[in-house]
Design goal:
164 residues; alpha+beta; four-stranded mixed β-sheet; 4 strands; 45% helix; elongated; binds FE2/S2 (inorganic) cluster
């Protein structure tokens, strides 16, 4: 099974060529799938369905095998990152102070789930582990901006700064 992409795939010929080179370089190695997917992640910034299909076809394996690896390892992403990358810390200190509800509020406000990107490419949301600022829990960041002692009520206000 595959997750339906909500962002259309816009890979270029150059990217495809680069990926085909990586496939040619690794295809005869044992465990070729990992370095090929790492190359795909680097080239495209994520590993969409179209790329999984190409890799599966080239390696003569099922797309569900490729999908299984992409979704198992956190180094791979099924979606591109947004212009603004929202990271919500779900480490213990943040979680006990309501980070889960804050994450839900961002998801609702943007109409996407953690790990996804809005169709206009503007925002993506990720849940992260402890970012080492537990004294400020709950903590979120948007690109380089860090927001401590975050609350559900501040979600819309914070988003607004980036929506303008
Ligand atoms: S648990 Fe969130 S910063 Fe440590």
């Amino acid at each position: 099974m595959n997750v339906k992409p909500i962002v259309s795939f816009n890979g270029t010929k150059e990217q495809e060529q680069e990926l085909r080179q990586a496939i040619a370089q690794h295809r005869d190695e044992r465990g070729a799938l990992m370095p090929i997917l790492q190359a795909a992640q680097r080239i495209y910034g994520y590993v969409p369905y179209e790329v999984q299909k190409m890799v599966a076809g080239e390696l003569n394996i099922s797309i569900s095998e490729v999908y299984g690896v992409v979704t198992f390892y956190s180094q791979f992403s099924l979606y591109p990152k947004g212009e603004y990358q929202i990271n919500v810390c779900l480490g213990t200190a943040c979680y006990v102070k309501g980070a889960g509800l804050i994450l839900e509020k961002f998801e609702k406000a943007l109409g996407i789930k953690a790990g996804q990107c809005t169709p206009d490419g503007k925002f993506s949301i990720d849940a992260t582990r402890c970012v080492g600022a537990c004294g400020l829990a709950p903590v979120i960041s948007i690109n380089e901006d860090v927001y401590g002692k975050m609350t559900e009520d501040k979600v819309k206000e914070v988003l607004y700064k980036y929506q303008k």
